Amino acid sequence: MKDKTRKLIYGIMAVLVSIGAWAFVVYNYDPYTYVKYNDVSLDYVGERALADRGLAVSEAGEEDISVTLEQKRVDVNKISSSDITAELDVSACVAGDNKVSPNVSGPKETAVVTFDAKPVNVQVERTESKFLDIDVIYSGDAPEDAAPIVSYIANDQAEAVCAVSNAGNIKRIAAVLDYNEVGNKTKSYTAKLVALDKEGNEVPHSVIYPEEVSLDAASGKIKTVNLAVTVKNDSDEQYERKYVVPEKVTIVGPEDEVSKIEIVNAEEIDVNYYYEDSEIPIECDLPEGVQIAGNKELVLKLSVKKKASKTNSEDQE
């Protein structure tokens, strides 16, 4: 029995020694290996220089590529596709079809062995510009009722430049803040500007002027409540006046203040002295620190129609 146990122990020790010897040889005498990474994102660079020439990327054939790296075996589990840089420089492209090869580099102490050698097909068009107000929004997983309270912003508007065929997709320009970095006290931030579609997704290959904006903001709560607008509209023998006002308004401010508000009252508007179609600003009565979300201007839309005179009516009869 003792001999069998001794043999078993010796066998296990032999296996462990063999594994150790193999590991020593592999990691010291043959420490490198080849690893292929799929879905390495292409980073388009030079688009601002392209826009300065009145051109923009309208469509690109690839958004990611495969890359094979030579690297140390010990780093196999430490490196991912996101650690590899693949840049596609479009600054020298011309209107029409272009073939552009990416520049690829891996992390320190690695070497690029191969990558998708096929040049990327890049379509380029003339540009179109859109000037839009800047919205300030959160990135990441912010609660639905969370919104930044903006007390200062260096630019009210920005210019979005993109290919003519993509211009219709741009609905908003937004300054993006990290929800986790914005606290209850107002601080200064520098936020990147992005172009967004109606679903809130970034429109690719869009260039924004300026590229970023300075602003002061604090964390707040957003809420949609009823809006009460009193309108003075007396009868008039010569003019008929009809109007439309918003029934709801979205406000943003400190959570303790916003939570208490269920209705927002506006100052009375007298439309009796308007003789043509107009948009009249609505002035809201809001507590200190609370504002209309996005600093959007609320308006009463007024339509004015001159009544037919009795004399003209009688003549027609």
Structural summary, described in words:
This protein has 317 residues and is mainly β. The protein has three domains: 32-125, Beta Complex (RNA Polymerase Alpha Subunit, Chain A, domain 2); 130-221, YbbR-like domain (RNA Polymerase Alpha Subunit, Chain A, domain 2, Beta Complex); 229-310, RNA Polymerase Alpha Subunit, Chain A, domain 2. The chain contains four helices and 23 strands. Strands 2, 5, 8, 9, 10, 11, 12, 13, 14, 17, 18, 21 and 22 form a 13-stranded mixed beta sheet that branches. The longest helix is centred in the first third of the chain and has 28 residues, at 2-29.
Label this structure with key terms:
single chain, 317 residues, mainly beta, RNA Polymerase Alpha Subunit, Chain A, domain 2, 3 domains, 13-stranded mixed β-sheet, 4 helices, 23 strands, 14% helix
Strand content: over 45%
Termini separation: 129 Å
State the secondary-structure class. mainly beta
Query: And the CATH topology of the largest domain?
Result: RNA Polymerase Alpha Subunit, Chain A, domain 2
Please compute the radius of gyration using only Cα atoms. 32 Å
What is the residue-mean pLDDT, rounded to a whole number?
87
Spans of at least 5 consecutive residues whose pLDDT stays below 50 are none
Helical run tally: 4
Structure summary:
The chain has 4 helices and 23 strands. It is mainly beta.
